[in-house]
Amino acid sequence: MNRLSAENVTLAYDQRVIAEQLSVEIPDHSFTVIVGPNACGKSTLLRALSRMLRPSHGRVLLDGHVIQSMPAKKVARTLGLLPQSSIAPDGITVGDLVGRGRYPHQGLLRQWSAEDERVVREAMARTGVAELAERYVDELSGGQRQRVWIAMALAQQTPLLLLDEPTTYLDIQHQIDVLDLCAELHEEQGRTLVAVLHDLNHAARYATHLIALKSGRVVAEGAPNDIVTAELVEEVFGLRCQVIDDPETGTPLVVPAARKARAAVATEAS
Amino acid sequence: MLRAPGGLSLRLDVRAVTVVVLLLLAALAASVVLIGTGDFPIPAGDVVRTLLGDGNAGQEFIVNELRLPRVLVGLLVGASLGLGGALFQAVTRNPLGSPDVLGLGQGATAGALVMIVLFSGSAAQVTVGALVGGLATGLAIYLLAWKRGVHGYRLVLVGIGVSAIVTAVNGYLLTVSDIVDAARALVWMTGSLNGRDWEQVWPLLGVCAVLVPLVLAGGRGLRMMEMGDDVANALGVRVERVRALLMVAAVLLVATATAAAGPVGFVSLTAPQLARRLTRSPGPNLLPSLCMGAALLVTADWASQRAFGADQLPVGVVTGVLGGVYLLWLLVAERRAGRI
């Protein structure tokens, strides 16, 4: 049985239902990426998996327990989250921010140990921000800042790590940078990663397991090579395209059909 | 800046601890000087000797019965306001989310005015009225602004709205009151430490003794909440629970302080900001804010007595001037040093 799963969950904000009867398994030691059009419920699903949102029906299970019923710090030692909305406090240094990732391992009487120190150093080295340790977070570029937040999540030392659109607002070089880092964490440390990504080609290139969502239900899931086809992209995103082999990695590469070709099909259909 | 080799958090902690110690010393020194100030000046050495139980009978009466309770009320009120302000500002992530701006002081005033004007209540009843008024205002703001957690600006706007309504009610109560009650109400509303005795000390001390340790223990969660609710949740903080608990504590602290000394302006707004600038440390700075509030209030009380004579100028006026000027000066100095 996998460590993290959602069973028949209904996800809603107040009265607005985003997904009903949704079931998802996150394969252990996978790099799972959730894709889908805007408002398909992918971030909502991630929020439910990370217990930020309580399902109105169904349950999210972590290691066989309903996640809401577990002690908060215990969950935080098992499952980390890099949310979209994080605020760097005024005047905080990189080292201090990363150090805050140790919170779930600390208590009122044990506030900072040599182990904390070591883990924080390692997290900063891992993400390439070690030389920024004394700098203020507000002075950093967007790409550096995202690395710092990832370092904080790493300092939490969780076998599962969830990332909500970790590449948003970054330029292409930093997007690849962050994704490479995720791939390393997955391959070298055997962590289970779950990310929501906008870019289908990035998803197909980096994911070992892909979940395609549309209107709150799973349309397809599996290895990118097995499931990413022109039909699937058309069904999920409503976009006509070709799927070819990525010349670099051999993974599926989605090439949207030319505007005129799409327009011709649209006229034909009507 | 102090730097411990290899210490990530130590560097900031050393500075914060230094600030706390210095502020405590400042508050104590100001207290001793304040006890010695008045119609019968007593040298600081004699004050300390008397406090330690080794003074002559006359000094003992003046120090222990007349002036010590007043100073203690000042220290406790300042500490409560500083801590309450720091909690509010941290939870709303907004310096404007202070009890001053949100109308808690006005709410407490309304409670006191109802007792004075409508019931001609005793001093104790007025205190209870102020407490109830403050708590009711806190509850009203909570109910109106708390939709899926507090959003900084929403809370501030609701607070300003509530504050405007309560101020209008206060104005109405004053106009319908007779002249004796109105005079009494005005004295209360200026926020001063005049004539405070042991009766005011004990409830304040009790509230502080219970709430301060509780709040400081919850402060670690609050520090995580600075980074946003999601990050704090992900780190294992029960955000809603911690927030509700700390807000109740903050409202209690501010309401009790206001019930004891009247609405002393500006301390809860400025003390956390000043403390933060002195420690230069992120986080809610709860303990430094508490010490800053105490030091600020006692110093302000001393300054008002020094400059205008005993009991001429209410301390609330001076805290506003002193705290405001100091904050502006710090902001200017910070900008010059390029730290903003």
Summed up:
With 270 residues, chain A is α/β, with parallel strands linked by helices.
**Beta strand count of chain B:** 0
Main pleated sheet of chain A: 6 strands, mixed
Radius of gyration of chain A: 20 Å
Tally of individual helices of chain A: 10
Largest sheet of chain B: none
**What portion of residues of chain B belong to β-strands?**
under 5%
Poorly predicted runs of 5 or more residues of chain A: none
CATH topology of chain B: ABC transporter involved in vitamin B12 uptake, BtuC
**Total beta-strand segments of chain A:** 12
Please describe what this structure looks like.
The complex is a heterodimer of chains A (270) and B (340). By secondary structure, chain A is an alpha/beta fold. Chain A is built from ten helices and twelve strands. In chain A, the strands form three sheets. A six-stranded mixed beta sheet of chain A has the order 6-7-8-3-9-10, with helices on both faces. In chain A, strands 2-1-4-5 form a four-stranded antiparallel beta sheet, covered by helices on one side. A two-stranded antiparallel ribbon of chain A has the order 11-12. In chain A, strand 9 (209-214) and strand 10 (217-222) form a beta hairpin. In chain A, helix 4 (114-126) runs antiparallel to helix 5 (142-155). The model of chain A has no long low-confidence stretch (mean pLDDT 92). Chain B is mainly α and 340 residues long. Chain B is 78% helix and 0% strand. In chain B, helix 3 crosses helix 13, helix 6 packs antiparallel against helix 7 and helix 12 (267-279) runs parallel beside helix 14. Mean pLDDT of chain B is 84; it is low at 1-12.
